[in-house]
């Protein structure tokens, strides 16, 4: 993996945006001349007319597609855009800045989760945490590859990218797809394992195991489908120009299927514990905190839905390096936010220790805050609770011991006496008014 990452990084070096050609390829120049003369829509020396006449440009494009290779067509398009003064679009910074910001947020959430679990006490490191380690390990290269992929092509118009760089872009994008499809179910499995730790109700636990199985199936099915989207596999990044023989699936439908299934699993994971949480007798503050955690979870689902809009051009556009920008940055938002959502219970537990007045539990004791979510806080739940003897003792307990000695010089004898300790009196307590001697002090 390290060698592969070094290889990807080396691809980003010495990348030059091609300067517009002085003249287009011969096939393109021939189409421009023949179509312009045949239609008579514009004179050859009228650049303004040649650039603005939509009917003429459409017919020239059809001619170029029929008579030029894909690589030559891009060169013709680059020449025409330059001659007509069309500004180049560059959204490369948008790609890597968004990715870097959310990578940092995801890592921060995971760091706070680790601190809460390992150093604050009251919680144990469990299977959900190990699965989250795997999710973070996938998130790092997923978001980290946004920088080299934007340096190569993503965010630029395809006609301003060298053909070899397009191939390299599609190669990195192929790996990004695999990482994205792996991170989604792994994150949900971590959340479901956390549910198993918190909830003991049979129906919820059964639902958790069913959803874990479905997420494992999602991982296997869509990872394999993505790997073998083209036959041979390298056709996924080499068949774009039509010069590499490959047979590929309908990648657009494949992308939609993966996205829709992911949204369904997201909603099922969020809805599963709601009924149990609703039936708990929680204080208003706890209810608000629980709802905030679930709102973050619903935000992940909203991101998935918004990302669907970008799939309209997935594998169907002729300008992949520009039109895949939205797919790219929404994917690098969705995965870190999912990790943040899964880490929020542990983060809340940490904050309740650091800022007890704001995030602290209304209950005291050494139990984890997770357990407190299922404990009733209604004071009427135990109306006959009587203070224990321990609660009647003062905060500072003073104990005095005395001994009495008598005797004669030369013939010493001692007389021992037992002194009774008087219990502390609480004027507000009925029980404290009873004078009951405690165990006698040990005689000296």
UniProtKB/TrEMBL annotation:
It is found in: Membrane; Secreted. The chain crosses the membrane at residues 93-115, 130-149, 169-196, 208-231, 251-272, 293-315. It is a lipid-anchor; GPI-anchor; Multi-pass membrane protein. One of its GO terms (cellular component) is extracellular region. InterPro entries: Extracellular_membr_CFEM_dom, Rhodopsin_dom_fungi, SAT4-like. Its main location: membrane. Residues 425-444 are annotated as: Disordered. Keywords: Disulfide bond, Glycoprotein, GPI-anchor, Lipoprotein, Membrane, Secreted, Signal, Transmembrane, Transmembrane helix. SMART domains: CFEM. Residues 20-85 form the CFEM domain. It holds the Pfam family Fung_rhodopsin. PANTHER family: PTH11-LIKE INTEGRAL MEMBRANE PROTEIN (AFU_ORTHOLOGUE AFUA_5G11245), SAT4 FAMILY MEMBRANE PROTEIN. Belongs to the SAT4 family. This is CFEM domain-containing protein. It comes from Colletotrichum zoysiae.
């Amino acid at each position: 993996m390290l060698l592969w990452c070094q290889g990807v990084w080396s691809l980003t070096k010495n990348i030059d945006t091609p300067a517009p050609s002085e003249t287009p390829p011969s096939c393109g120049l021939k189409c421009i001349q023949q179509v312009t003369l045949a239609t008579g829509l514009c004179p050859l020396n009228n650049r303004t007319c040649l650039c603005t006449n939509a009917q003429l440009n459409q017919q020239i494009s059809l001619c170029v597609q029929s008579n030029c290779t894909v690589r030559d067509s891009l060169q013709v398009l680059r020449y025409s855009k330059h001659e007509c003064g069309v500004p180049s679009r560059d959204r490369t910074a948008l790609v890597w800045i968004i990715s870097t910001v959310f990578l940092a947020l995801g890592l921060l959430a995971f760091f706070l989760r680790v601190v809460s679990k390992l150093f604050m006490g009251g919680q144990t490191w469990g299977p959900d945490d190990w699965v989250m380690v795997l999710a973070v390990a996938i998130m790092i290269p997923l978001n980290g590859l946004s920088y080299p992929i934007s340096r190569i092509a993503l965010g630029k118009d395809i006609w301003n990218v060298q053909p070899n760089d397009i191939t390299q872009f599609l190669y990195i994008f192929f790996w990004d797809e695999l990482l994205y499809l792996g991170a989604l179910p792994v994150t949900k499995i971590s959340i479901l394992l956390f549910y198993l730790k918190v909830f003991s109700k049979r129906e919820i636990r059964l639902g958790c195991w069913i959803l874990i199985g479905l997420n494992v199936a999602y991982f296997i099915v869509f990872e394999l489908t993505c790997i073998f989207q083209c036959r041979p596999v390298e056709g996924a990044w080499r068949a774009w120009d039509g010069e590499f023989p490959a047979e590929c699936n309908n990648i657009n439908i494949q992308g939609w299927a993966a996205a829709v299934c992911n949204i369904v699993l997201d909603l099922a994971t969020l809805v599963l514990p709601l009924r149990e949480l609703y039936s708990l007798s929680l204080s208003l503050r706890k209810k608000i905190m629980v709802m905030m955690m679930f709102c973050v979870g619903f935000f992940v689902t909203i991101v998935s839905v918004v990302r669907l809009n970008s799939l309209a051009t997935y594998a169907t556009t002729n300008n992949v390096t520009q039109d895949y920008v939205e797919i790219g940055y929404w994917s690098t938002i969705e995965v870190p936010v999912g990790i943040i959502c899964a880490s929020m219970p542990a983060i809340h537990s940490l904050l309740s220790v650091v800022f007890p007045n704001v995030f602290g539990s209304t209950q005291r004791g050494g139990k984890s805050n997770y357990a407190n979510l299922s404990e009733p806080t209604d004071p009427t739940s135990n109306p006959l609770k009587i203070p224990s003897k321990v609660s009647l003792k003062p905060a500072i307990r003073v104990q005095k011991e005395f001994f009495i000695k008598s005797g004669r010089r030369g013939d010493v004898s001692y007389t021992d006496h037992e002194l009774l300790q008087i219990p502390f009196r609480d004027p507000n307590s009925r029980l404290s008014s009873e004078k009951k001697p405690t165990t006698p002090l040990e005689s000296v």
